[in-house]
Structure formats: C-alpha cells, structure tokens
Amino acid sequence: MIIEMFARMHSIVTNGRVRFFFFALIASGVALLARAPNLPGGLAIASSRLHVFSTIFQGIFIEAVPFLLLGTIASGIVEVFVNRDELARYVPRDALRGVLAGAVLGFCFPVCECGVVPLVRRLFNKGMPLHVGVAFLLAAPALNPIVIVSTYTAFGLGPVLYARIGLTLIISMICGLAFSFGARPERVLLPAAWPVLAGGSAVAVHADSPPMLQRMGSVVSIAADEFFEMGSYLLVGAALAAAMQALVPQSLLLGLSGGPLVSVLALVALAVVLSICSTVDAFIALAFAGSFTTGSVLAFLVFGPMVDIKSIIMFSGVFKRRAVGYLVILPLLLTVLAAVFINLNLNW
Amino acid sequence: MTRASRGLVLLALGVLILQRIWAGTLVWFVNPRTLALTWMAALGLIAMAGSLLGVRPVRRLAVGAGDGRHPATGLPAGRHGLHQDHSGHDHSGHDHAAAGGYYSLVVLALPLIMALLVPSKPLDGGAVANKGLNTARPLVRDAVTTLKRTEKPPEQRNILEWVRNFNYAADASVYAGQSADVTGFTYFDTRLAPGQFIVARYSISCCVADAMALGMVVQSDQAAPVGNAWIRVRGPVSLVKIGDQPMPLIKAVSVDGIGAPADPYLYP
Questions:
Q1: Residue B224 is part of which domain span?
Q2: Which candidate in B52, B205, B247 is best for mutational testing of the A interface (most A CBs within 10 A)?
Q3: Which residue has the higher pLDDT, A5 or A283?
Q4: Size of interface A-B (CB pairs under 8 A)
C-alpha cells in the first residue's frame, strides 16, 4: 500500500506535474506583482524592478537574436560547405602565427559575442586547433570592421582606438597561446565541440554530395538546432544581465572613478554587469571618458567584448568548467594589468 | 514531439517580434535603427520554425535506417564519429534535440512567458535610481569625435542635445539665457535643492540594456509633479552644479503634464 503510494508520488513528480504546479505558482506570483495596482512600499519597488528586468531582458533578446541567427547560419554553412582537410591547410602550423590568424579572423567573419560562440564550436568540430579558436573567440567581437568604425566614431583617431585594437590583439593572442601548450581538446572542450575524427563534411567533395537546395536546407536545419541550444545559453545570460541591471545599483560603480586601479576594476565590473553589444560599447564608454581614467575606459572596451555575463554562460556550452574559468580570469588579469600600466605610466 | 514543440516556440518568438513591430512597441526595447535587423531576425526565426515543423525542401531520411546519416540533416553522420563515444549510445536513432529538451524549450520560451506575464512598458523613472543619472561630461581629452553639438535653435533641442551641447562647450555659460522647451519624465534626486527636480530621458544606442538616463534640473514654483510623470517644461536656461558637475537648469515658466510619447527614448 505504502509502496504503491510512493510509486504514485514518484510518478507524479517525474511526470513533471509537481514541477508544473510550482511553475504555475511562480508565474501567477510574477503576474500578480507586475499587474496589481496600488502596492505598498516594498512591493511597489519590487514591481518596478520586475518591469525593469522584463524590459531589459526582452531588449537584449530582440537585439541579440539577429546576431545569434547569423552566427548559427555561419556555423551551418561551415558544417555543410567547409571541408576538414581544407581548413587544416589554411591554418598556420606554428602556434604564434596560428593565434595571430585566429585573432584577425574577425575581419573575415564579422561576428559579435553572441554569434562567435556557435561559430567557434563548429570550427572546433572541423578540427580548428584550440589556440586558434580561443584567439578568435576572444578577439572577434572587438576586432572586426563594424566595431572599429564605431570606436572611431566615438573616439576618433587617437590612443583609445589604437590601444583598443592593440590590446585586444595582444591579450587574445596570449590567451590563445596559453591554450597551445599541451592542452588537448578532449580535456578543454565539451564533447559537442570535439573535433570529428572521420567523415564530417567530406560531403563537400564527395561525388554523391546532395544537390544545392538540399544542402541549403541542411544549413537552415543545422542552424535551427544550434539556435535552440546556443539560444538557451544566451537567454540565461540575458536574464542574469537584466537581473543585475535591475538589482545592482550602477551608480555605486560609477562613483568609483578615481584611482588607477579602482577605476579599472569599477569599469571592468560594469562591462560584465551591462553585457552590452560590442558594436555600441564605444558610445557607452564615451560617457565615462570624462570622469574615469583612460586606462579604465580601455579596460571596459577591451574586456567587455571578450567576457560578460552572457558570454560566460555561452562559453559553458563549448568549454569545460575549468577552461571557462581560464577564459574569464586570464583576459581579466591581462586587461587590468595593461590598464593600470597605462594609468600609471602614460599620460593619455 | 520535441522537434515540433521547438518549431512552435521559434514560430511564436518570430510572431512576438513581428507583433512588436506592428504595434509600434519595438521602440520600447531597441533603437529603431536596428529595424531592418529585427525584421531579418523575425523572418529568420519563422524560417527556422518552418524547417523544424517540416516545411522544408530537405527530404527527411528514414530515422535509424542505418545509413549513417544525421536524421535531422540528411548529411553523413560525420560529427558523430567521436561524439558517439562519450555518451555511450548511438545518436543516429533519435533527435539530438531531445537531450535537455524541456530545459532549453522553457528557456527559449522565456521571452514569450515574460511578455505574457508582465505587461510591456518602456523604461521609466523607476530605473533611474538603479542606473544612475549620467551627469558626467562625455568628452575625451583631446579626442576628435563626430558627436558634435547641435546647431538647432534652442527651442527645438531635446534633452540629449542640451546635455551634449553643455558637455562639449568649452564654456557652457554661453547657453545661459537661451529658452528651452523639452519633454521628459520627472525624477527626484536627493542632492537637489527644494523646489527642484529633474526632467529626464533615456538615451539608447542599441537596446535598453545600454540605456543611459540624461536630465536637466528644473526649478519651479509650482508644486512638483509626482514622480515618473511625463511633462513639458519651458523656460530660460542657466547653470547649476550638482556635486562638481555643471548641469543645465531650467527656470520653469511652465510645467505641463503630457501623455507618454510613442517613442519614449532619444537616440545619439
């Protein structure tokens, strides 16, 4: 009898009915908080924060969808049309030239931080060496024509533009090199990003390769699957970023504009919290440029495109946890070091 | 089942975006400059939904027929060469998507769920307290910038143009005495003197995540409007310092309540 009851309860839980019940409870709470008129003090603030969260979350979603879409379609095209052996032929053999190639690849694939992750994962599948992929992943969101033009528009030809390009190049190359020393893909990457040993899109050269229309259909189909997977990472990141914006008072961070180190840490933290697209971050940085040190503004422009909340979450769809840690900490340390050096030694 | 439900979620997301464009509420979330991209995104989502729901030119190959092709794509199952080993089972007989299916389904449906549960509205004064009012001078030492001040007559400048002109002027006092006519929402700051409040707008470069609140101080003899109300303020401009930041101050001749504008934000 008791066993039967347990079995029944178990089946209810695994059927997801209980989960559904909790979900419905949370949903009605959220809806009530959002819609109830004349809430008392604390609840009114919570309701206002909820609206801020919802608006920013949907804003990031609408803004990011086209870029994620382009990234997944690029990934689909690579899967269907790029041959593994061809890719191997074009990637330089030695590590230094490899990471340099990876870092400037953004000029060929102008993708921002939402689009670069699915593309990098696919390139890993195709056998792109780890260090090249890491350099591409970190550099591409800032080292591409669109971002360079927007930085030029905001800051003109000057130290900020040159240093943004230079520092992004150097830091992404150093991080790429760090992954070139004996790191094996199986230990760094999640299985979904492992290189394929055989087959792959040998379809590109096979005599019985499918007709063009079918291959284009395959691109869309692969992109749809990938969009779903990467989209879930992106949306978790967007939700976290929106929650941070709704809950963490940025005015506190903006108050920390003095000091060669504190100002850098404040703007680095702000870059992570804001999670704004690299294509417009120069205009946001412009607003800090008057009150913050030049080094800290540069840190915002260099570190922001490499790492923010949504990219950390998306990295964890490609890399194992420890590697995600390295991908956050290494660029962070290098950026802070460079920015503090600029603040102390260069009078920009 | 998963494939179909995924297709439905993508379709609904695409329709949600189209609905926002149609209803004119897209500008509550993103800079209208991105309209073309947003159209592309909506249509792309619907195309993908079509591909998942089976409306596609690709011939679905028999699942698990043992020809070594990926069931979803009809391509040789190349990527499964090594991939198979890790999970200890053969992927060729089922949909890849099924793994963690419900999780990603719910997460992808989050924008839909939020849109249903929380009535949409643009950012208002409620967010200023957290985002902070940007009183900094957005000017880089010696930098050339294309964001020049506007030459518009004073009455036609909006809050963004006023703040920018103040910040780019070597001597902002040249603007003293000019008459302003601006609209924005009210915001109260503890640093202000009695009888003063701020009329503010958000400036959006890309989407609301980068929203920055900009404002002008208003000095008015009238009872201050309640927080978060939309107003139109007219009167001569002078300078005031908040902390050590010079800010434009309007000595209000009139403060009128107005309805929220269709496009609540300003764009640099």
A1: 127-257
A2: B205
A3: A283
A4: 274
Q: Which of B49, B75, B210 sits opposite A284 (nearest CB)?
A: B210
Contact (CB, 8 A) for A110 and A93:
no
What percent of chain B has a predicted confidence (pLDDT) above 70? 72
Interface probe with A: pick from B5, B27, B51, B242, most Cβ of A within 10 Å: B51
Same domain, B197 and B177: yes
Residue A35 lies in a domain: no
The answer to the question of residue B104 being in a domain is yes
Tens digits of per-residue pLDDT, A276-334? 878 778 877 877 776 788 899 999 999 999 998 888 999 998 999 999 999 999 999 99
What is the separation of C-alpha B251 from the centre of its chain, rounded to a whole number of angstroms? 32
Q: Within a domain: residue A109?
A: yes
The CA-atom distances, in angstroms, between B23 and each of A63, B111, B120, B249 are 18, 17, 12, 36
Q: Give the pLDDT score at B189.
A: 77
- Domain that includes residue A202, residue range: 45-345
Contact B76 A57 (CB under 8 A): no
Look up the CATH number of the domain holding residue B239.
2.40.50.140
Got the DSSP string for A81-115? H--HHHHHHHS-SSHHHHHHHHHHGGGTS---HHH
Q: pTM score, two decimals?
A: 0.79
A201-210, B96-105, B214-223: which has the highest mean pLDDT? B214-223
Query: Is B43 domain-assigned?
Result: yes
Sign of the C-alpha dihedral computed for residues B72, B73, B78 and B83 taken in this order: negative
